[in-house]
Amino acid sequence: MFSKTLIVSLLILASLAATANAGQQNFVLLNNTGFTINEVYVSPRKARDWEEDVLGRNQLPNSQFVTINFDRSEKVCAWDLMVVYDDGEEAYWENFDLCSTTFILISYNERKRVTEALWR
């Protein structure tokens, strides 16, 4: 589990990333699932496909974060998010307002057997 200090620090980092020379949809994705994520897809709401893996050849290990950056010219605010774990399992969420979200924390709820997302 993450400490409140770490989460607050990441929120500050996310706020700084969002104000840098990039799109207003920038956000920090924090993996708190207990698993390694191999792929991350962020697609405009209602897109026909997931487009490209924003991690490229990288992975996102548990307890790590990545900043997802958008081009400054991007105007769309409603986005869907999907992660693919190293075992091939997928989790996805629909309709994030990335114009007002700077931080997404994903975690695995063992009791419910579901990956959950918290955002701010």
Describe the protein.
By secondary structure, this protein is mainly beta. 13% of the residues lie in helices and 39% in strands. The longest helix is centred in the first third of the chain and has 16 residues, at 4-19.
Search tags:
120 residues, mainly beta, Immunoglobulin-like, 4-stranded mixed sheet
Blueprint (SSEs and pairs):
Blueprint lengths: L3 H16 L7 E6 L4 E8 L20 E4 L9 E8 L4 E8 L5 E7 L4 E6 L1
Parallel strand pairs: 1-6
Antiparallel strand pairs: 1-3, 2-4, 4-5, 6-7
For the record, the CATH class is Mainly Beta
Q: Number of folding domains?
A: 1
Query: For the report, how would you describe the main beta sheet?
Result: 4 strands, mixed
Q: Can you count the beta strands?
A: 7
- Looking at CATH, the homologous superfamily is Domain of unknown function DUF5300
- How many helices in DSSP terms? 1
Secondary-structure element sequence?
Answer: HEEEEEEE
Q: Helix- and strand-based class?
A: mainly beta
- Round the mean pLDDT to the nearest integer and report it: 86
Poorly predicted segments? none
Fraction of residues in H or I helices: 10-25%
**Envelope shape:** globular
Distance between the termini: 18 Å
